[in-house]
């Protein structure tokens, strides 16, 4: 018996349970979806080799798969800080985790860090898609920009979005058209392009743009909502009813989609459906802006829920006490209780507007008309589709407003109309603004006839304007530390003057300085965005862009 025991001991095989063994066992459990045993196996492996970044990433991946995103990120932070700083794909993993935690600022931070450290990494496209989602689906403006083409794409789209919000629809159109031409796959720009056409009164182009968007991405919710509004405008009832029925079946998961769908339903008069969507959004626990509560209050009021409407307007008053929007509508509900009939409220965040008679609009004054995006949209619509007498009044109103957007609208009217009287009034409006006249100039109160080919200025006037830019360079680039910028700008401007090309006419000379500073930053790898420089010099981004294009043709170095 003793002999048998001795034999048994000598035949025992040593079972080597090292870290690799536990990792392989964990992977086998993973194939069976036994996550509890997977996590236990990976933790044992890490206990044996705590500095092994690969094992740490295995565990972080499984924790993310079971929804424990914060614990996953804790491990991934430890990987790049203490184990393997060069493992840059970890930043992409963290970006995904933060997105799932709805911490989109940190998701943006990690995605950009990954792209900056590995521009050709295997997750490049996924990281860029995540940034697109954060910036455009969630409507979060970028806090950081990447270098190169992607920066131009994001910054241009951000400028276009601001232009839409502020009622500069023609400016937005130009920027958005540039974006879709340079990158036809950039879907947020297509959606905003259709909106820009719509607000500018060009419904045919708006419809065409929506159709192109849906050809590229059949289920694009923003495009479908825009299509519904356009069908409503054209009274295409049968198609509209079918589309509304389809939209009602959509259960939006992302907050931006829910907001878009709710607002569209409200605009289309589907207040019950809009109320249901807004109610669900506001009960999610996420913070919301005053305008969202305002739209929700409208849906509640229009669907007969006055008490709920009052509660939401009181929330608007709390969030935005200075606008007086909430006070106005709370008074309206009180009057409604006292016997007045229910009023139809548009889904816009402003106080109720008095009916504007465009024939009398010039008597009101430009300042009262220029700051409201919806008034601007009405002006552009009237200029496209109004009666002749309305168009005459709108041209006068635009001359009072007198900014770049108004000038562009009047100039567009001049080129599109065949009515000689309307052409003459458009020329007079341009003259009143102090703007350059198109083609062969008409006499006006502020301008005599202009003769220079392509510039609208005589040769002495053009030369004087070129000298004005040179003087400005000396005056504004004179501070300590700007000597190199001044020398470079003077040399570049001299090259432009000698290029034997007509001067691009710009009303504000400082726009050329903004363009020169932008190009100098590009050459010296100290790039600033055109939007920032436009703000610095008090000109529009579109004007700076026009100057940059003129100078870029010179191959400056």
TrEMBL record:
Superkingdom as given in the UniProt entry: Bacteria
InterPro entries reported for this sequence: ARM-like, CellSynth/LPSAsmb/PSIAsmb, TPR-like_helical_dom_sf, TPR_rpt
TPR repeats: 19-52, 187-220
Region (Disordered): 440-465
Record's keyword terms, sorted: DNA-binding, Repeat, TPR repeat
GO MF term (any one): DNA binding
The protein's name in its UniProt record: DNA-binding protein
Native species: Brevibacillus composti
């Amino acid at each position: 018996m003793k002999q048998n025991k001795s034999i048994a001991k000598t035949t025992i095989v040593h079972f080597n349970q090292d870290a690799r063994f536990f990792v392989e066992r964990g992977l086998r459990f993973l194939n069976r979806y036994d996550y509890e045993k997977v996590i236990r196996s990976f933790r044992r492996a890490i206990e044996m080799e705590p500095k092994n970044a690969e094992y740490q990433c295995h565990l972080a991946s499984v924790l993310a798969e079971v929804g424990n995103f914060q614990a996953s990120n804790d491990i991934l932070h430890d990987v790049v800080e203490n184990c393997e700083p060069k493992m840059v794909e970890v930043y992409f993993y963290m970006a995904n985790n933060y997105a799932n935690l709805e911490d989109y600022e940190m998701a943006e931070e990690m995605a950009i860090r990954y792209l900056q450290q590995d521009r050709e990494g295997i997750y490049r496209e996924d990281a860029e898609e995540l940034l697109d989602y954060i910036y455009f689906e969630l409507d979060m403006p970028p806090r950081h920009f990447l270098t190169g083409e992607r920066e131009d794409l994001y910054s241009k789209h951000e400028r276009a979005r601001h232009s839409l919000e502020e009622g500069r629809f023609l400016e937005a159109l130009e920027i958005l058209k540039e974006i879709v031409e340079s990158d036809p796959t950039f879907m947020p720009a297509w959606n905003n392009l259709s909106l820009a056409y719509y607000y500018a009164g060009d419904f045919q182009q708006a419809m065409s743009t929506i159709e192109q968007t849906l050809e590229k991405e059949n289920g694009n919710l923003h495009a479908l909502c825009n299509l519904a509004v356009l069908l409503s405008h054209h009274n295409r009832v049968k198609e509209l009813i079918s589309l509304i029925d389809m939209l009602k079946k959509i259960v939006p998961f992302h907050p931006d989609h829910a907001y878009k769908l709710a607002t569209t339903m409200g605009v289309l008069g589907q207040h019950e459906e809009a109320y249901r969507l807004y109610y669900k959004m506001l009960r999610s626990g996420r913070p919301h802006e005053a305008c969202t509560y305002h739209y929700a209050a409208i849906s509640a009021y229009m669907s007969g829920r006055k008490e709920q409407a009052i509660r939401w307007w009181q929330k608007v008053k709390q969030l935005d006490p200075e606008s007086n929007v909430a006070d106005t509508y709370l008074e309206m509900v009180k009057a409604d209780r006292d016997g007045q009939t229910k009023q139809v409220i548009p889904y816009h965040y402003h106080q109720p507007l008095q009916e504007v008679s465009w024939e009398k609009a010039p008597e009101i004054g430009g300042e009262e008309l220029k700051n409201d995006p919806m008034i601007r949209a009405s002006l552009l619509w009237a200029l496209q589709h109004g009666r002749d007498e309305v168009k005459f009044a709108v041209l006068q109103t635009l001359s009072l407003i007198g900014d770049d957007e108004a000038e562009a609208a009047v100039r567009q009217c001049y080129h599109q109309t065949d009515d000689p009287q309307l052409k003459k009034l458009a020329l007079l409006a341009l003259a009143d603004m102090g703007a350059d006249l198109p083609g062969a100039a008409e006499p006006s109160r502020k301008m005599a006839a202009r003769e220079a080919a392509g510039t609208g200025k005589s040769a002495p006037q053009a030369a004087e304007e070129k000298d004005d830019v040179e003087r400005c360079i000396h005056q504004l680039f004179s501070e300590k530390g700007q000597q190199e910028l001044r020398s470079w700008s003077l040399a570049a401007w001299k090259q432009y003057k000698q290029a034997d090309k007509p001067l691009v006419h710009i009303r504000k000379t400082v726009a050329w300085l903004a363009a020169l500073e932008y190009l100098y930053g590009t050459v010296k790898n100290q790039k600033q965005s055109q939007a920032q420089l436009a703000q610095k010099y008090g000109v529009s981004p579109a004007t700076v862009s026009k100057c940059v294009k003129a100078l870029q043709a010179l191959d400056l170095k």
